[in-house]
Amino acid sequence: MTSGREALLVELVDESGTAIGTRTVDEAHQPPGLLHRAFSVLLVDPEGRVLLQRRAAAKTRFPLRWANSCCGHPAPGQSPGDAARVRLHEELGIDPVPLTEVGVYLYRAEDPSTGRVEYEYDHVLRGEFSPSTSVLPDPDEVADLRWMHPEELRARMATDPDAYAPWLAGVLQRFTATANGAAGAGATTQPAGAGTATPAAGNGRVAGRRGTGPEAVDAGADGTEPEPVAERPGGGR
């Protein structure tokens, strides 16, 4: 259950990603926010489409917004890859897939509806996945799933930013930069757009994940619906 996860421990880090302590999920996300380690997974199919999930209504931060395939927090001392494979099974019911880290995204942002603050050193992970593979999303975590090409996703985020989790633009930027042959390692930042992102306090980095809206990008939506993911019978755990 989402509520039970609020009592789990996360690893506090400094701006270089060095562990400096622990707090519960709930404590780390209270204003003004505590910088902690996180991960974001984007699963990609052979056509280059990425798998998106719509966050469940029960989520304490940014419910019912479209986000990357899976995200979460490693337990203290746990690697982001190991934590991500566990979380992929918990949220989507899929077996472990190979994951590659493509970058790190440091951001701070506030949920305008709850006041909760996300301040994360976010490891962005890429995984190869076939759209024909059955999944079993946990309805307490996932409201819906869709496949979408990155170009279309950028266009949709530009035209309807409030429908998307505000961290998604930064995660997608690191994913596509690596796919295009750019280096992905290191904590990097993304230019602000649409007046919705603000620098993280004291470090000049840009908020771009769980905030008031993702950075806008120059693109036009084509109005087509993304393709749904095949699900196992039952639709939930």
Key terms:
237 residues, alpha+beta, Nucleoside Triphosphate Pyrophosphohydrolase, five-stranded mixed sheet, four-stranded antiparallel sheet, 28% strand
Structural account:
- By secondary structure, the protein is an alpha+beta fold.
- The chain has a single domain, classed as Alpha-Beta Complex (Nucleoside Triphosphate Pyrophosphohydrolase).
- The chain is 18% helix and 28% strand.
- The chain is built from 5 helices and 11 strands, in the order αββαββββαβββααββ.
- It has helices at 2-5, 25-28, 80-92, 150-159, 168-179; strands spanning 9-13, 19-24, 36-44, 50-55, 66-67, 70-72, 99-110, 117-128, 142-148, 187-188, 227-228.
- The strands form 3 sheets. Strands 6-3-8-7-10 form a 5-stranded mixed β-sheet, with helices on both faces.
- The chain is globular.
- Residues 188-237 have low confidence and may be disordered.
